[in-house]
What we know:
6 helices; elongated
Amino acid sequence: MEITAREGWTIIHGMGFGAVFLLAFAGGLAGLYSLNPQWVTVTGIQERLVRMKAGLWTMAAVVWATVITGTYIVYPWYRANPPAGATDLSLFPKFLLLANPNTAQWHNFGMEWKEHVAWLSPMAATVVAYAVTYYGPTLAKKIGERRALMVFFAVAFATAAIAGAFGAFITKAAPLH
């Protein structure tokens, strides 16, 4: 079994950084939800916030790493133009997908989603991390703000999960060798 450098970067991008973000989301959401003064003491809230801040900022860094490796390392290989007259498109995934009407939508919709919507995930994760850092312990008493952050956080998760699914399906249909 052999993995090329391009396949390795695709694994780092999707299964490495992307998967870590999606898994870390559950901890962040649970932390926000449980930040309730009726359930936790003042000391417990302060202790919980230390972990939440570290976890949320780490998660924000990981999702930014996902976007950066996808945008600047993996995506240029995906969209590389084949030489004129090329008939073997296996090294040019975008054009391999577009050459077949049965797979063209993987690029036309799936990759467009990844390009134009998935960037919301790192933005939202960073905003949530910043808000938890900014509000600190007072966030426990701010029910509306906490709920808004959880909704915003859930949108970040959903856009990343959809982008990850499209990435997996696109890679299955047109692998990056």
